[in-house]
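Subject: Interface between my chains keeps coming out wrong

I've been trying for a while to get a sensible model of this assembly. When I model each chain on its own everything looks fine, but I need the whole thing in one frame so I can look at the contacts. Pasting all components below, labels as-is. Any help appreciated, I'm running out of ideas.
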Amino acid sequence: MAETPATNQLFELWKRQFEEGTQAWTRLLGQQAPQAPAIDPAAFWRPVLNQGLETWARLFAQTPASPEMLTQWKQFLDQWIDAWSRALGQTMGTEQFARLINQQLDAMLTAQAPLKKAFDQQVEQALQTFNLPSRAQLTGVARQIVELEDRIERMEDTLGAVLRRLEAREPR
Amino acid sequence: MGQERFSDVVERFTNGYASAAAAAQASPETIGQWQVELDRNLKRLQNLHAMLTSPVEPRTGQTPREEIYKKNKSRLYRYASPRTHRTPLLFVPNLGISRPYIFDLLPHGSFVEYMTGQGFDFYLLDWGVFGPEDNDLTVEHCVTRILPRMVREVLESSGAPELTVLGYCMGAPVAASFLGSHPEVPVRNFINMAGPIDFTKVGLFGLWLAKDRFNVDRFVDTLGVIPADLVKAGFKLIKPTMDLSTSLNLWWNLWNDKYLEGFQALNKWANDYVAFPGEFFRQWVRDYYQENRLYRGELVMGGRRVDLKTITCPVFVVGAKEDYIAPPECVRALVDAVGSRDREYVELPGGHISLIAGRGAAVHCWPKVAGWLASRS
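Reply #2:
Try treating it as a single job with all components included. I did that and got this:
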């Protein structure tokens, strides 16, 4: 069998790029912090790739090709997604990631609060100009209805309790 | 193993691929298989075209029901049954996040339909879809005002002296808070399905919402209502590959009309997120996630202390092995926290949703729950 150095080179290149990429992401997310156990995201996809390529090699060797290879391909993709899911899950389960998303959320809130306030004021002014009720006013009315419903219910409960007590005192 | 083995495999792969040229002739059986595959691909394309050009609204929630009671946005529905068991069942699902039609998704694929078929008088509490006017609603309000009322309505409507309470997801800790602070409620059984109780073991959400990182007051004060899109983003983030694997599985099964029907119904539900009332979210995150007050017995609702030890009825706890929203260990905690003598924990295959909805649930979970309940109802 003839050697296929070009294919091997391509795989090597792709593998190296993949490993460097995952390492770069790991560094970016602060995985290399002291005391933190070193995570090797490549450990997830390497066995998957090995298994997938083994299966494909076996299939190609057992030609003619049958639709079975599509099932194998689907299984390979499932495993690949699962490996990524576990790798991402591990990254997302770190203190660093939790801090990162909360920083993002904080930044969003900091940017959103004044914008929301200004927007609400503008809308309220515009609605006032056209003599239309604002969202806050409608919400206020809805709240009053909810409170009224609550009060009626409490009165019903009290009335029910009184009636039950009376019935218990004067049996017919 | 790493490097060396990888190159070996690559070499074997390329060698195998090259030797494919010397292939033997395909057998009639293989040709037949390819024909089936071709037909499937044509069907896939047809169904994809139909999905894109004339999408059909899935008909979810078809089990007949009647509205028994309503309070603001919340509704209590009764699903009639042959009623071979005397004790009615009140189902308490999560508030916010998603709609409860997942429990009655499609005919022959519905938890509600299964339980009524088994002879349980089934009452579903639908918390409803909340708007800005409900922003002051708290967990305490749900526990001290809504749940007692719903329990009374169930007992009145069924004429039974006792009831079973089944809490799912967030509904379970809320129901546990209610039962732990209202020992006078005539509850015959309590079932917790995938409901977190010990929030120190609650996984990623617990980590992200920890007190030293997540400022819930600032969050609620700025946003007011917690928008559905933000809730959706949180749940998508917890499993980022979910959409990819869903799409892959859809393509793989797109030729199968039955699968497609189930997918469309589930997909409708999976993208139908519901906002959280701001104050509810504040109390939920602070008291349950950040301070674990329910499990520690430090929760006070309506002036009453919530004590899980006062729950003495039979308790059944169901955890899901692959649940990343409420991991089994935080669900299991209820078994040791209650004062019941008759208590049981089972861990079933599946995730947070597949525990209660879908084909796996019909095989693993529903019969288990119905079986446990039947002898106690």
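Reply #3:
Confirming on my end. Chain B touches chain A through 59 residues (CB under 8 Å).
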